[in-house]
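hey can u check if this looks right to u? its 148 residues, i copy pasted from the old doc so theres a chance i mangled smth
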Amino acid sequence: MKDCVRAGADRCDQLGNIRISVRMSYNRVMAPRDTCDLLCLDLPKAEAIRNALPSQAELDAASDPFKALTDPTRLAILLALADGGTCCVCDLSWIVGRDEKLVSHHVRLLKSLGALRSHRDGRMVMYELKPLGAALVAAAAVFGEQTT
């Protein structure tokens, strides 16, 4: 406990971990912020969580598939394929009401993200959802339920 007092800490927990508090002031005329008025860092807890996080490269790779949900055209394509099974770009273009070149661009992106697979059927290239694409459709459904 003496170490905590010597360190200038406001308080210590039972294990002697230091919690430092700093008063933050802001103009009360402004809208309230979604941050604490008091900076109180539980350093051991914060460091343990920080050290357990994946590396930046791993976070980047894990977040890539979610890019499929950030564009309404890509989301419409995923939903159309979830309902229609296998479709060509011509069909998808008609279904989602977008230009064929735009749909083709988004289909290529979805394929590169691992959400779709393609196969040639004569002169047509057919697209269908991969398991990741189906999971993204399910995630979009959950997000949709939360916004209603």
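Confidence is low (pLDDT under 50) at residues 1-9.
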